[in-house]
Write a structure and sequence with these properties.
Blueprint lengths: L5 E5 L13 H15 L3 E7 L8 E5 L23 H12 L5 E4 L4 H6 L7 E4 L7 H13 L4 E3 L2 H4 L9 E2 L19 E4 L8 H11 L3 E4 L5 H10 L5 E3 L5 H8 L4 E4 L9 H8 L4 E4 L3 H5 L6 E4 L4 H9 L6 H11 L2 H15 L4
Parallel strand pairs: 1-2, 1-4, 2-3, 4-5, 5-6, 6-7, 8-9, 8-11, 9-10, 11-12, 12-13
Helix pairs in contact: 1-13, 6-11, 9-12
Bound molecules: uridine-5'-diphosphate.
Length: 357
């Protein structure tokens, strides 16, 4: 390593790290922090009180959580609770900014972009979802123009939802492969992982399980109970089981025994961290050809990409799943989504912001 950087991460403000409310960005914060810490950089993570992050210093901040952008209308105004944890986190950052080389924003929210020109320390923004809010699109576009190179995203499809796509740095994602065990002999079951929320299209996976008769194991944060109850009412006899929100270790133990992971996003999924977690276990991914998963899955090699919103497409792909070599899945995860690869991309990004590379 050439130079040690001092990096202050500001986590998502819609949930505590470890709660699952933040979705895949929680795993992204953990993995980048751990990998850059391992490389000798100084890292601290500012996050809502109650956050847990293994082996990394967390500065816990009190206050009320932000509403999630995906539950708001595109034209909705920005909502700020009176005692907003987001505002409190940035008040903390303002007080200590001189101690850090780069401040890294992981919140999908307006305020951090708005505050950027008022800071002396450079701010890098990692955007974790596609376009969902007119206010965010506008302010992020202004920051992209004013501070070139400071906006990072997961994928091309995600970047293309923004008018400032060409200004985005593509950073992908990565995972600690040691936590995911390869399984060559799956059982006759399927997996679905993610927040239980309408944009994830869980009902299509349930419909496919019903048609094929193959049991579906569902794991993830219960974000929208009404949505889940409607699925249960619509498919009372589908062979599905909801196992709750699991830790990474528990989750991979369940997933690795499955014949495939089904991904059924209704929205332009920014990445789909669950895809690379399944691949790391040797589990092929069957996904709608939309957003991040379409850039991850190698059709016919590490899974199948099917016509978006087509349950029949899922069913046909499930019928062909034995054609996929599970070793090719693990191997793709090892080559493209290791922590080393992730660390290289982020380290390069921070250095370029500081004009060090
Ligand atoms: N996840 C988890 N436990 C579960 C199911 C999912 O920790 O039981 C995590 C998973 O590891 C992933 C995240 O939930 O990091 C979902 O992220 P993804 O990028 O797939 O979608 P997002 O929620 O960001 O839209």
């Amino acid at each position: 390593m050439t130079e040690s950087l001092k990096l202050l991460f500001l986590s998502t403000s819609v949930g505590q790290l470890g709660s699952g409310l933040g979705g895949g960005v929680e795993l992204t914060v953990l993995n980048i922090a751990q990998e850059l810490h391992r490389r000798g950089h100084k890292i601290a993570v500012v996050a809502p009180v109650g956050s847990v992050l293994e082996s990394i210093r967390v500065i816990e901040i009190t206050g009320d959580l932000q509403v999630t952008a995906q539950t708001q209308d595109y034209n909705a105004s920005i909502v700020m609770p009176a005692d907003a944890v987001l505002a409190n986190m940035w008040e903390y950052a303002r007080k200590v900014e001189e101690e850090w080389d780069v401040i890294v924003n992981f919140a999908y929210d307006w305020l951090p972009f708005y505050l950027t020109p008022f800071f002396r320390t450079p701010i890098a923004h990692f955007i974790s979802m596609g376009s969902l809010s007119r206010s965010l699109d506008r302010i992020a576009g202004q920051i992209a123009a004013k501070f070139p190179g400071t906006i990072g995203v997961y994928t091309v499809s995600q970047a293309e939802t923004f008018a400032f796509a060409d200004e985005c740095q593509l950073l992908g994602s990565g995972i600690d492969l040691l936590l995911y065990e390869f399984c060559s002999q799956p059982e006759p079951k399927l997996a679905w992982l993610g927040r239980i929320a309408a944009e994830k299209g869980l009902e299509d996976a349930v419909a496919a399980a019903k048609i094929t008769g193959i049991p579906l194991k569902i794991m993830g944060k219960m974000q929208d109970e009404d949505y889940w109850q409607k699925i249960c009412a619509d498919y009372p006899d589908a062979p599905v089981e909801y196992l709750g929100f699991m830790t990474t270790i528990q989750m991979q133990k369940q997933v690795r025994e499955c014949r495939a992971l089904l991904m059924t996003p209704r929205w332009v999924e920014a990445f789909g961290n669950v895809a690379i977690e399944a691949l790391a276990c040797g589990v092929p991914v069957i996904s709608y050809e939309r957003g991040g998963p379409a850039e991850i899955v190698r059709d016919g090699l590490t899974g199948f990409l099917v016509e978006p919103d087509s349950v029949n497409g899922l069913v046909s792909a499930i019928a062909q799943i034995d054609k996929i070599d599970r070793r090719a899945c693990r191997s793709q995860a090892e080559v493209e989504y290791s922590l080393g690869a992730l660390g290289d991309r982020f380290e390069h990004w921070f250095k370029s912001i500081l004009n060090l590379s």
